[in-house]
Amino acid sequence: MHLFYQPNKNLYELDEEETRHSSKVLRLNSGDIIHVTDGKGLLQKCVLNMHKNKAGYEVIGSEMIPRRSFAVHIAIAPTRKAERNEWMVEKMTEIGVERIDFLITEHTNPETLNRVVNLNRLNRIAAAAMKQSQQFYLPEITVNNKYDSFIRSRQEDVKLIAYVPDQNTVEHVFSKVRKDSSTSLLIGPEGDFSEKEIAFAMENGFSTVSLGPTRLRTETAAIAGCHAINLAQILN
Amino acid sequence: MHLFYQPNKNLYELDEEETRHSSKVLRLNSGDIIHVTDGKGLLQKCVLNMHKNKAGYEVIGSEMIPRRSFAVHIAIAPTRKAERNEWMVEKMTEIGVERIDFLITEHTNPETLNRVVNLNRLNRIAAAAMKQSQQFYLPEITVNNKYDSFIRSRQEDVKLIAYVPDQNTVEHVFSKVRKDSSTSLLIGPEGDFSEKEIAFAMENGFSTVSLGPTRLRTETAAIAGCHAINLAQILN
C-alpha cells in the first residue's frame, strides 16, 4: 500500500514533498492507485492524477479506521539533543502512541526546550512514521507544558510516573496497565524529577513505576515505556 | 557511581577519551573514587591518580558481577543508514543484550554492509551505553555473518525469526520466551527475508514470531524485539 498523508480532506492533492516522493522514489504515474489518510482515521483509496508536477487524486473509496481500544500518552522532559527528541517521536509513533507532550520541569532549561523541540519538525517526523508503519492516526504532540498545570489536568484512566528510588519497591509499568484504558506515563529529564515534582504527581493520582533493571537514557526510557504499555494492552 | 571501561584489567589507566572525560567533564582529581569495569563482569573500585594528563588508578576493591540468568541474542540485517545501526546498538545495550550479530541476507548488499557497519565504532558506542546504563558486560558484536552458516551454528535454547505473513497466525515474541533461557531473535532487512531464508531458518529450529500490530522499521523492530524478550524474562 502506497500511503500518503493529506490532513485537509477537501484538497485532493499531495504536498510538494509527497509529490516528489510519489514521482521520483516510487515512480508512480497517473492512473496508479494510492491510499491517502488525513491522520484522523480517514483512509481513502485514490487514483493518482499527475499534472505538471502536481500530484492530484480522485477518491474512489473511503473508510474510517476506528481508534484503538486503548490510548498511550507519553509526557517527557526533552533531552538536550534535538535528534534524540526527534527519534523518540519517530519510534514511539511506529510502535503506537496517541499523545506526546514535552514538559518543562525543574531540571529543564526552557531555552533548551525551544532549541531542541521544534513542533513543525516533530509533526513532519510523526507523519512520516505514521505512514511508514501503516497507521491512520497522527499522534498529537504538544510542547512547552508547565509541569504543575499539566499534571493537574490529566484525565487518563491510569496515571504513572517513571521513578526508581529503590527498584525492589516499585512495580514495572507493564503490570500497572489496565486493559482497554488510557494510560499516561511521565518520563523525567536527565537530572530526574525533583522530589517535589514526584510528590505533586502522586498527590494528583500518579503512581510510581519502574521501566526495568537497567538505567535508561530519557529517550530510551520513553520508547521502552511506550512499548511496554502497548505490549500490556496487546498481550493481555 | 563514575563508571569507566578498561578492557585490559592489568593496565590500571584510562584511555585518552575517558581520561579527558574524567578531568574535563566530571572534573575528577587525584584521590577521587572511580569504578572501572572490564566489560566481562569485573567491577573494580579504584582511587584515581592524575599524572601529566594520564589518568591512572589503584584498585582498592574488586568483585565479579554474575551474568544474568538469561541471554538475549539479536541478529539483524543492517539498515542502509549507519546512524540507524549505531543507535540500534546503543539502545539494545542500554536495555540489555548479550550478542548482536549483523547478517548478510539475500536482500542485503554486502558493500552496503561494509559502509554502514563499522565494528570499531559499534564497540565504542556499546561500551559508552554499557557504562551509561551501569552494566558490566559488553555485548559481543559481530559483522559479516553469512546467513546460512550463521543459522546452522545457532545454539540458543529458543530460536525465533520475526516474520509476519499474516499477523493472526503468528505468536508475539513475548509469549515464546522461556524463563532463564537464551533466546536468539532474527530481524530481517527492509525488503524482509526471502521465502527461502524463512524456510531455511524453520528447518533449523527457528519459529516465526510477530513483533506487534504495527509495521516497524528494521532498527525499531530490533529494539522492540530485544525489549520484549527482556520484559518476558523480568516479568515472568
Automatic annotation (TrEMBL), chains A, B:
InterPro entries: Alpha/beta_knot_MTases, PUA-like_sf, RsmE, RsmE_MTase_dom, tRNA_m1G_MTases_N
Keyword Disulfide bond applies: no
E.C. no: 2.1.1.193
Keywords (A to Z) from UniProt: Cytoplasm, Methyltransferase, rRNA processing, S-adenosyl-L-methionine, Transferase
GO cellular component, one term: cytoplasm
Reactions this protein catalyses: uridine(1498) in 16S rRNA + S-adenosyl-L-methionine = N(3)-methyluridine(1498) in 16S rRNA + S-adenosyl-L-homocysteine + H(+)
UniProt-recorded name of the protein: Ribosomal RNA small subunit methyltransferase E
Entry's family note: Belongs to the RNA methyltransferase RsmE family.
Domain Ribosomal RNA small subunit methyltransferase E methyltransferase: 69-229
Any GO BP annotation: rRNA base methylation
Gene3D superfamilies: 3.40.1280.10, Hypothetical PUA domain-like, domain 1
GO molecular function: rRNA (uridine-N3-)-methyltransferase activity
NCBIfam families: RsmE family RNA methyltransferase (TIGR00046)
Cited function: Specifically methylates the N3 position of the uracil ring of uridine 1498 (m3U1498) in 16S rRNA. Acts on the fully assembled 30S ribosomal subunit.
Subcellular location(s) per record: Cytoplasm
Enzyme class, UniProt record, top EC level: transferase
Principal cellular location given in the protein's record: cytoplasm
